[in-house]
Design brief:
Layout lengths: L2 E5 L4 E4 L2 E4 L5 E5 L5 E3 L12 H14 L4 H18 L4 H13 L2 H24 L1
Antiparallel strand pairs: 1-4, 2-3, 2-5
Helix pairs in contact: 1-2, 1-4, 2-3, 3-4
Length: 131
């Protein structure tokens, strides 16, 4: 099934480790085969991974974008998840979903769930700071 991407002027997208920068006009790309695609708004930099949940997202993103190094990044992911569960046991259901998707190779879907984890982390921190 083809994937249609509509890029805004100046928008970046990573397709199979290649950074593509759209020119000055709206552009439509249709990918006819399987590819690792990451829109600019979904890209987490190492510097931006400034919380435990964001570091988990970053590890999954690296597995997604660099499949040849997936095993290495999965080790870091496992370490981060273990620490997160230890610190915030109530996050276990979200982390189990993410972990299942990682094991199944559904890394893009796991990244989406990591965004839920980041939101949950923010809620927990807000709740703690209010007490």
């Amino acid at each position: 099934m083809p994937l249609k991407l509509i890029l805004k002027p100046g928008e970046k997208v990573i397709i199979n480790q290649a950074v593509v920068l759209n020119g000055g006009e709206k552009t439509e790309l249709v990918l006819q085969n399987k590819a690792s695609v990451l829109r600019e708004r979904d890209i987490m930099t190492e510097e931006g991974a400034d919380s435990p949940a964001k570091r988990i997202y970053f590890a999954v993103q690296l597995m997604y974008m660099f499949p040849d190094r997936e095993r290495h990044h999965q080790g870091k992911f496992n370490e981060l998840v273990g620490s997160f569960i230890e610190a915030v046991p109530s996050s276990t259901p979200i982390l189990l979903d993410i972990g299942r998707k990682v094991i199944e190779g559904n890394l893009y879907s796991a990244m989406k769930d990591c965004k839920k984890l980041m939101q949950y982390e923010e809620e927990v921190l807000t709740h703690v700071s209010e007490q």
